[in-house]
Amino acid sequence: MVFDANLMPPALGVLGLLIVFSIYQWIKKQPSGSGAVQKIGEQIHIGSIVFMKREYKMLSMFALVLLVLLYIFLGPASALCFLVGAVASATAGYIGMNTATIANVRTTQAAHEEGSAAALTVAFFGGSVMGLSVAALGLLGLGGLYYFFGDTHSEALHGFAMGASVVALFSRVGGGIFTKSADVGADLVGKLEAGIPEDDPRNPAVIADNVGDNVGDIAGMGSDIFESYCGSMIATIAIAATLSAVALDKLGNQSELMFLPLALASLGLVCSVIGIVFVKMSSN
């Protein structure tokens, strides 16, 4: 039985998601504290989830219009790639934000009980979920689509980048506007009118400010990084797919050149997992 190298990226993507799930379960098992810390952390978590659901609901309406237009003018392959790209980007942002709001309070509790080293470990693994989710979903989505369309409809992969870009734009800008509005509102009302210190939980706008930090700087940035990560691979695939015969004589087989960015990204995911394992071993 001959191994198909084109299956390597999506297979590693699935493996990456399994590792993400295991890290997420480890984070949830860490003590979350009690009293005010747990209460405030829960409020931030719930607020972030509510905002994301509302944002994605509005985003889905806009994406649906683009999906129909792509289907009409560019065909079902491009429309499918657009849909997969949008869903993968939104999923990466949601996973990262959800994990961050869970890890935040556990990092605080670890710092209180065991010191900065334990807090750094929890924070590191909370952040690694976002990074691995971006890489794994990118390889799973783009790698899977390349397996089906790479040789016949490679131009359809551009739809994947467009879907990822749409979600990144809404998440980054929408989250940024929300967090800045909450920040300014909290300062105006809390410090100037009520005389409450900055970031005091008695000011409800402080909770909204922290929600904005999570949805803008984590979910928004996660979708943004996902778009850049996949966009760079798609751009390289497009360049390889349009090389002239003269260039191919010097550079080699076209299919191998098109697959090269996916192969390098797959290697990057493996190296990232190895790095996380070393951090875990050193923390023990």
TrEMBL record:
Transmembrane residue ranges: 6-27, 58-76, 82-105, 117-150, 156-173, 229-247, 259-279
Annotated localization: Endomembrane system
- What stretch or stretches form a coiled coil here? none
Assigned GO CC terms: endomembrane system; membrane
A GO molecular-function descriptor:
inorganic diphosphate phosphatase activity
What is the membrane topology here? Multi-pass membrane protein
Keywords, comma-separated and alphabetical: Ion transport, Magnesium, Membrane, Translocase, Transmembrane, Transmembrane helix, Transport
Under what name is this protein listed?
Answer: Sodium-translocating pyrophosphatase
